[in-house]
Amino acid sequence: MSIVDLKQTWRALPLAKDGLAVADTHHPSLRHTKTAGRADAANMRFSFLATAAGLSTIVSARNPLDTEDQVRLDALAVEINRDNSFKALRWTARNTIVGTLKLRGKSIDESVSKDIDVAVDELVFSAIQKAVNNDPAYPKVYSANQPPRVIRSLGLSVPGGRYSYDNPDCVYRTIPISDRYEYLVHGRRAAPGPSDVTFSLISNPNSQGTVASLLGEDLVVRDDGTYTIRIKSAKSSEKNYIQSDGSAVQLFVRNNIGDWAVETPDDLTVEVVGDHDAAPVTKDDIVRKARANLAESIFFYDVGALGFKTLLHPVNKIEDPSQSQTLGTLTTQASSFAHFNLKDDQALVISFDKGLSTYWVLPIYSLGMVTHSPWNSIVSFNNKQAAANNDGTYTFVISAKDPGTYNWLNITSHPQGLIMGRWQGLPRNGTEHGIKVQSSVVPIAGIRDVLPPETRFVTASEREEQIRLRVEGYDRIRGD
Questions:
Q1: Which domain holds residue 327?
Q2: Which ranges carry the DUF1214 domain (predicted)?
Q3: Contact in structure between 328 and 370 (CB atoms under 8 Å)
């Protein structure tokens, strides 16, 4: 579907323009004298964060995601979220989702309405998170697009910032960049490392068009687990090099964790090569950028991803995936979007051959494109979590009632929902990926009649253990 088609639908929905003026949000700690060094000024921009988080010190982290920069940026995002209502844009976001769903024949009951509220809240916070780490002269490594969490050791509650089909496996991190500077990204990997790793230069943090990328298979890692990636506008044939250009604004890093019990995200830091005297962005700049991010996100996700990529497909049917490089998809990833509407006594059975993919994940979502409690509900499976059929294919049962199958995706009492399957590690811009998907709606009572004879079934206690291990693995990856 073309951008023109998207914009026509956008204009047809009941939207409002955000007429709110940006408040005077200058914080005393952001001000600096002309004689202060620029690097010190950049650090001063964050100096109020310990107070905002109720802290006097920032403790060292035991997790690669719990860095000092992460805590500071989270605290800044929390403060901006608290002090700015984004009322008109919130109204626009909610009405866009509702309008899109109704346009495609979805009913909005109390449960769906609550899901939409959650989706809007997280979309707003995601726009803020993109904005707080948006200074290419003073870049940080920042993990975003996560469910709500509490940094227990610090007592900091961080809202969820998921949007447009979060992946429960994926640790997303952002680094702002500009072709005016040269950057070195330093990584450290603990064995066995993530299942799939990509470093993508993108031209827009909201539409996420890919400019250039470095794939995990091409990343050169030293014997001690460390690596360095250079980002620069000039051409180069060196290893671990990503060529930037005037359109690139962010390095978007994905670490997909397949085995939640043993795999760990890479530890990442970034530095700007050489000296510069650029002024750091102000808090007003950040708030303005958050508003712009939110306005674009409403269009790209709530109209584009939801209305066109997903709801134009037939209900209760998932089709063979295709590759793209827009709306957050990788150039080496094939995706399949679908939506379901199931009765209590029905199940959607999905089977597929993984083809050439080296990593895949099959999550289910609310109608707001957000996963339901992925930490303690089985709402996703990947290639290291699922039980395979004897021929190497995979079969899943999506339903409200537990069918007793190991590969059960729980719709968590939400009969209407969405699906986005991802298959990664494919040849760039390829079409022959060998992935074939089949789906059908069947009665729960007759589920055994349609499943392969070798299908793995579990007892109630085995299901409890499956969930316990999921909770434990999730907390190991994302806990503090």
A1: 313-478
A2: 345-413
A3: no
